[in-house]
Amino acid sequence: LCMLHGIEPGIYWHMGKIVECGANCAEPKGKVILATIRRDSFDLEPMNPRERCTPASVAAHTLYEKTRPDLLTGPGGVLDLREATYEQLTERAVRVRGSRFIPADDYTVKLEGAGVVGMRTIFIGGIRDPILVEQIDTFLEGIKQQAHETYPELRSGEATLNFHVYGKNGVMGSFEPQTQAVPHEIGLLGEVTAANQELANAICSSVRIDVLHTPYPGQVATAGNFAIPLNPPENPIGPVCKFTVYHVMKIDSAESLFPVEIVEVGA
Known about the structure:
Blueprint: H1 9-19, E1 26-27, E2 33-37, E3 41-46, E4 52-53, H2 55-60, E5 71-74, E6 77-80, E7 85-88, E8 94-97, E9 100-103, E10 107-127, H3 130-134, H4 136-150, H5 152-156, E11 160-166, E12 186-194, H6 197-213, E13 234-251, H7 254-257
Antiparallel strand pairs: 1-4, 2-3, 3-8, 5-6, 6-9, 7-8, 10-12, 10-13, 11-12
Helix pairs in contact: 4-6
């Protein structure tokens, strides 16, 4: 419809990127959004009178799951938001201008597919001993080495063991910028993936016991260094999936895979 009425491609692409998530671009986030589109701009206003759009809330939506918030690659080209502007039109509405669509030389579409790669078991607990918290990285590396010595499946790659240290870098991992901060406590999630649930359970149980009882430099207590909130302490959570197809495919035209059929109805 936008193409039929001569709307700039960058305008309707940008609008579509936002309104597909409803009123997530509002403050507070809501469900239903009204978009009014023009040839070179579009307006956004939430339907709930307790919500409002602001330039910041609308612009922030492009940060959602994007490698770059200013250049968004899609089928047939790139949505360029480097010159986009966000104007507070009314107390609750925002007008967006300046979005451009840059056609690509080749039309491409992304293909995605997933498959089961194993079974997973986890354990979770907390560590508050400051002596252990301060050396948690070297401690967990030692736990991994012990597990690899015990289970040949870990050495061969048939099984995997991962730790997520919440309170330190559990969210961002190696990208965490605050590398010197020492928390007063941490939450530890241990994750084991193996070819079958029984093996995942066995490795996970062994690793959890090692976390609980392995000594470390400066240790004062002999046990009880790992607080486990759940019983049973190991929890099998079933199949693990990963992308088995994640590919950009070049095609001759959009219609070759996604044909458009127009049917006129009525008298």
